[in-house]
Amino acid sequence: MRAPASDLPLVLTNASVMRRDVAILDSTTLTIAPGPPTILIGPNGSGKTTLLRVAMGLIPLSSGSISWGGRENASSERRAITFQRPAMLRRSASANLRYALGAARVPRVQRHKRAAELLTMVGLDALASRPARRLSGGEQQRLALARALARDPAVLFLDEPTASLDPYATKAIEDIVQAVSARGVKIVMSTHDLGQARRLAGDVVMLHRGRLVENTPSPEFFLTPRTEEARKFVVGELLV
Which residue in 35, 42, 171, 199 could disulfide with 207, CB within 3.0 to 4.6 Å? Predict the structure, then answer.
């Protein structure tokens, strides 16, 4: 894996995404720098997924700007993303990875070995020949992570990868996230789970109704939240 994050810092300046006159992302200014995981939190509909897709370059801004490592039109080859419900190809776990490696232009002679390495990294080496669509939800998420890592990314965006998973499967994903982060890959991950944010975050970005309401180091966010929205969210009150 590559340690230097050439797409960082990722800088959004007054970034907005509009849908039918509704601000899904509302004049957000945010800098994401190299370091421990950045965790996005907020209630459902707060704009977390939209921010991740904008950061990946999948959807355009309605206004404002975004740059990756100082460039506004940077190639996305050093970025990867996984979604809450990953789509599996109708082939084995190993073949899913070989396909991803091919898409990443890894030479054919290297794909079998590299696929085996990635399966071992995510704890699926014993399931290499199993059809990917017959894997459990947690196993599919781990395979999705492996496919994203096939791109050898410098920045990895994760959209609620443990939603609806049991504690065992959640821990397996979190262990992978921590291992990948320790290798120098920048993780930007959304979650609605405050416990998970406490365990993983180097810094916390909180969104509400498309607006950025907090952007602070994790200990500061949980001990002394600055805004009323963050204080309510931390103690479990509903945000409407």
Answer: 42
